[in-house]
Every structure is written in structure tokens, then in C-alpha cells.
Amino acid sequence: MKKKIRILIVDDHFIVRIGLLTSIKMVPDLMVVAEAGTGAQAIDLYRQHLPDVVLMDLRLPDLSGIDTTAALREEFPDARIIIISTFDSDEDVYRAFQAGARGYLLKNVLGGELTRAIQTVHAGDQYIPPDIARRLSEHQPGSDLTPRETEVLRLLVKGLSNKEIADLLGFTENTAKFHVKSILGKLQASDRTEAATAALQRGILHLD
After folding, report:
1. Does position 141 have pLDDT exceeding 50, yes or no?
2. Fold of the domain built from segment(s) 5-137
3. Model's pTM, two decimal places?
4. How confident is the model at residue 148 (pLDDT cuts 50, 70, 90)?
5. For the domain bounded by 147-201, which CATH number is listed?
6. How many C-alpha atoms does 101 have within 13 Å on its Cβ side?
7. Are β-strands 30-36 and 53-57 bridged in parallel, bridged antiparallel, or unpaired?
């Protein structure tokens, strides 16, 4: 008898988990061994069940799906994780694969594609829908910001001046200027407004 692919579903929305569970139950070769609603719970359940494939929501209430993926891959280098999200911004996709995800799907995925993705990742390959693969190959260089630069960019997007950013983050105005200059260079932006627009369009930041 063929061994079933064991799956951990991670999503903080019960309805989404039910939808995925229903789709998976229709495929004889697949089975769900556990469901998690947070990143911390996902890590705990992974340790308990050691699933073959994880379906990981991008947005979770504690750790992000990307942070959870990175944590799992650090502890379990062979973990096979597919990010499932309502978002498909270039930066989200890029960061997911940087963190060690093996696949990326949108939540409106049909059952057939979901099954193919799970089987492909379980076999040791990556699963990337053609449109996302094309955009990933065209990922604009220079958006790999440091955590500090991301903090500065978040405040820059809110319209704060260099002095206000420096006061809030506890460094000098010259340091703020240095970070802003670095951000403009990495985003290939000519000014602060262009940098803020690029950050939102590429999904580096999301409006609250």
C-alpha cells in the first residue's frame, strides 16, 4: 500500500483550514496529521508529528509565516514548506524562498494545483506557479534591506523627517541620513517619495 503524504496545515483562520482540509481529504494519497493557528504552535506540532509537507500561512498572529519557515528550516533542514497566502507581492515571494520555503501558492488555489504542489515539494522539488516564477526571476536587486533600514523605511513611509526618525530610533540625525541614503540606493529611488512608493508596491511594507 502506498504511503500517504503527511501534512501539517498552519493558518490562523479556521475557515481556511477547513477548506484546505476538505481539499486534501479528497485525495487518497494525502492526509492531514495536525493543524496549527500560530507560528509557535506550528513549530511545536512539527516536532511532535514530523510531517512530510507543511502548508504555511504567510500572515500569522505571532511569528510570520516566513519567520516560522526560517525557524523550522534551521531546526529541521529537510522541512518541506509551501507558503499559502492571499498576497503575491514580489517581496513576499522572494523572502519566502530566502527563508527556505519550497513552494508558494495563493489561497484561491484549486484542489488539483494544491495536490500537484504538495506532491512536487514532497518529491524534493520546488513548486512555483509560472507567473510567480517569472516575477521571482525578475526580482529587483537592491531591496534586501537590513532590519534597521526596514525600521527607518517604515517611518519614512509615514512621512517622518530624518530628525524625527533619529529621535524615535535613538540615534543621531546624521545616522538617519546615512540609513535613508542607503535605502534610496537599494531601492533605486531618487527621493523619499519614490522610495516609499516602491516599498509599498513591492510589498516590502504593508499599510496598517
Report:
1. no
2. Rossmann fold (3.40.50)
3. 0.67
4. confident
5. 1.10.10.10
6. 29
7. unpaired
